[in-house]
Each structure stands twice: as C-alpha cells, then as structure tokens.
Write a structure and sequence with these properties.
The chain is an alpha/beta fold. The chain has 15 helices and 10 strands. The chain has 2 domains: 330 residues, Nucleotidyltransferase, domain 5 (2-Layer Sandwich), CATH 3.30.420.10; 88 residues.
Length: 471
C-alpha cells in the first residue's frame, strides 16, 4: 500500500473559476467527503467590553450545550475562516476500501469585518500558513449570506463568492457522509460561512445539520476514543496508526484501504491583465496620471507608467516651468539642461524598470516554488516518516488524514460503523457526544427555510463562468 505523497490542489482566487466545475463534478461522484478548517480564533478573550462575556470559559468548560453553543456561535460570527480543506473520496474499484482521492485546499478571504486572535494567527504562521498570500490571493466571499451573498461592485469577487458557496452547497446536495475530526467548531464555522447566519438556538442548529447531511456526520476522534479507549486520539497519531493497520491487512491479503491520490487538476494559466492603448495626447507622459492625482492606480505594480513620487515631482516642475515660460514669453529652459534632465530621468526609469524585472522574476520563482511544494508528486522528507510531506495543520492534508481514518474504520468495523453515526466529539466528555438528531421540541431555523429552495434548485443563484479544467 503506502501513499507516497500528500498531493493536493491549491485553490485561490487565481484559479477557482477555472476549476470549480470539475470540483463540483467530483463531489457529485463522492462516496464520502472529509473536511477541515483553519480560522482566526477559538474564543473571545480579553475582547471589547461590548461583548459582555468571555467565551474562553464557556467553550471549554460549559456543561450545558445551550451555553457552549452560544459561546461557539459568537466566536464564529465574529471571527473568520482563512482556509477550508476538502478531501473527496470516490469509488475506484469494486473491492472494499479502494478509493480515488482528490484533495483541495481553499485559501479564503472573508470580506466581513472580523476579529483576529493573536494566538490563532501565530499558530497558523508557525505551521506555514502564508498570511500575505491569503490577503492577496484568498477567495473573496461574504459569510452568512441569507439567502444569497451581497452583490458588490467588484464582479470578479461576486463570482468567486458564488462559486465557493456553490461548491459547499453541492456537498449538501450530494447527501453523502460528511467526515470530521474533533470537528464541532468546523461545523459551526462552515455553517456560518457558507450556509447562512447561525441559528440562535442550539436545537435548531442540530436540527438543520441533521437535514443538511442526510448521509450522516462522522467524527473520527469520537470513533477512535470509543474503539480504542486510553489510546492517543489526536489526528496525526490516529492517521499513522490506522495507516500501519491497513498496510498489515494488505500484506495479509485482507480487505484494506487503498487510496490513490489523484494528480492536481490541469487548467490553462490565467491571462495577465492587459492595458488600454493610450490616446495620442498622453503618449508623451511618462508617469501615471491616476497615481499622481490620487496616490493609487488600479493596475498597481502592473502599470507600465512610473509611480515614483520624485520622478512625478520632477516632471511636474518642468511642466510648470514650461507653462510659466510660455505665459511670460521668456525662453524655455536650455536644451542642454533639458537633455541632461532627460538622461537622468531615463537612467532612473531604466533602473526602476530593472528593479521591477528583478521583482517579477523573483515572484515567478516564488510561484514555481509554491507549485512544487503544494502540487508536486515528489515526496518530501519528514522526520520519522519519509513517505508523507510535513503538512500537519494544512487544512487539505488534515482533511485527507481524517478521510483515511474513516475509511480504515469502515473496513475494520463493517456495519458496526453505523453505531457512530451523527455523534460528534465534545471536549472533556468523550463518552457523551453531541447527538446530531432533531428534537421533538425544535424545528428548522429561518436560515434553513430560506436557503433550502437554493439547495433544491428552486431558486437558482447566479452561475460563475464555465470551468475549463480537466483531470
């Protein structure tokens, strides 16, 4: 057996609209889907007095689920997702445990104003999450759209948000099992981000989840705690332990998990932005007029004209001198001086151009480096196990490990896996899981009622442009 790599697709605003259709097709063929998230906070501690409470105590120590849910929902409403990992397990062969696996890491940028926990951001940075890249390339979306996201003046951002939400809604439409690992917070954040505003009532939230995922929700941490009590149950340990078990089963010619990780999707690279042809009257102007007037330019560093303030001032002073000379009837500056100034400016522009070329080359190399680390099928070394990349806490890899653990327990337990259906691990209470089942004294939330027509296709949202990706 042995999986040689942890290959995944790195999805950002640069390629989402090129691959979204293919991702949705894969979801439609899934047997189950595992997810993991990264976000900007787990609690509201030392926050503004306007909150009126400190959720750190509630999240970890509250004994009543209503209190725990209230704390968690307030955290999800005031913080934001930064990454969504999704591992899609689909049938490969007829024999049990044989899967094709497509892994996705969605770097997202929530447009709602939100809080950031210093500890959470430090944790992400220490584990390789690129916050600068998230700011510049994250998929833009609005959390809690109900029933549809707000429409902004940025059409491309609108398409990104709609495409991302449709991918999530396709997970709901697939009606296959959703797999998490210690994932109650994942469920709360995902609901708030992609489904709609979280219900006020804990019972309504649970009722909604039971109908959103009729294939059931499985928490591999809870399964591990129950099947092997007393053993460590954190994600990486549980994954590698089950991987060894499956390898031994394969050697013994017993049914075993054989997960083939698919290569990254192939798609045409996005085209570089083009610039409008300048009118004849502007061809002699070497600096950017928009930047000179407002301090910004919509083309940013791609603008072919200078944003150098000193150069702009030099040009404007010469223009003013020519204007005054023309009005007074005096002679224009001597040609030799103007010629020398032009030489200096030319050198300055050339030096600026050289710097931009260098930066551009560096950026290209950096991009290639990211592709090699994120999408390459070459294994990377990791202390203690050279078969897997050191990608713990990357949402895509955590989702894959979660899915593999679930597949392993499916093989090991057979029909007994049903005993763990819709039981979500609760911190500090491993033998008292959160039961995802509707209460006789509850009903669906207003969010679910408003969003259900979109799920069923009775109220179709605006479609993103067609995808051109292929496997």
């Amino acid at each position: 057996m042995g999986v040689a790599t942890a290959t995944y697709n790195d999805i950002t605003r640069k390629n989402l609209l090129l691959v979204d259709k293919t991702i949705r097709e894969q979801i439609a063929n899934a047997k189950f889907i595992a997810v993991d998230t990264e976000f900007t906070g787990l609690s509201i501690s030392n926050a503004s007095p306007a909150f009126g409470f400190n959720t750190q105590e509630w999240v970890t120590r509250a004994t009543q689920m209503e209190d725990k849910y209230k704390a968690m929902s307030n955290v999800a409403k005031t913080h934001a997702l930064v990454s969504l990992g999704m591992s899609v397990f689909s049938k490969r062969h007829n024999k049990p445990g044989s899967f094709n696996v497509n892994n996705y890491n969605f770097t997202v940028q929530q447009q709602n104003s939100h809080l950031i926990s210093a500890n959470s951001i430090a944790f992400l940075a220490q584990n390789g999450f690129d916050l600068n890249r998230q700011a510049s390339e994250g998929i833009r979306f609005y959390a809690g759209p109900n029933p549809l996201p707000p429409v902004t003046r940025n059409e491309l951002a609108n398409q990104e948000g709609l495409a991302l939400r449709e991918i999530f809604l396709d997970m709901v439409r697939s009606k296959v099992p959703l797999v998490i690992h210690n994932g109650l917070f994942d469920l709360v954040y995902i609901y708030q981000a992609f489904f709609g505003p979280l219900p006020d009532s804990y019972n309504a939230f649970v009722y909604d989840l039971s109908e959103m995922f009729p294939g059931g929700i499985y928490d591999t941490k809870y399964i591990s705690e129950m099947v092997e009590p007393g053993s460590a149950s954190f994600l990486a340990y549980t994954f590698h332990k089950n991987e060894r078990i499956q390898k031994r089963r394969l050697v013994a010619e017993e049914p075993a998990v054989q997960a083939k990780l698919k290569s990254p999707l192939k798609y045409p690279e996005p085209e570089e932005p083009t610039f409008p042809n300048l009118p004849e009257s502007e061809k002699g102007i070497e600096y950017c007029l928009n930047f000179a007037l407002h301090g910004h330019c919509r083309f940013k560093d791609k603008c072919p004209k200078s944003h150098d303030i000193d150069f702009i001032l030099d040009c404007q002073e010469r223009e003013e001198a020519r204007k005054l000379a023309s009005e007074s009837g005096s002679e224009a500056p001597e040609k030799s001086d103007e010629k020398n100034a032009g030489v200096d400016d030319s050198k300055k522009r050339k030096r600026s151009s050289d710097d931009e070329d260098s930066a551009s080359t560096s950026g290209a190399d950096s991009k290639k480096g990211r592709k090699a680390s994120k999408n390459s099928e070459e294994p990377a070394s990791k202390p203690g196990n050279g078969d897997h990349k050191n990608m713990y806490h990357t949402a895509a890899y955590d989702a894959y490990m979660t899915g593999f653990i679930f597949a392993s327990y499916q093989i090991r337990l057979g029909e007994g896996i049903g005993e763990y259906l819709n039981k979500v691990y609760l911190m500090g209470r491993p033998d008292q899981p959160l039961l995802i089942k509707p209460s006789l004294f509850a009903s669906n939330s207003l969010t679910y009622v408003q969003t259900k027509p979109i799920i069923e296709g009775k109220e179709a949202p605006v479609k993103a442009r067609p995808s051109r990706a292929k496997q």
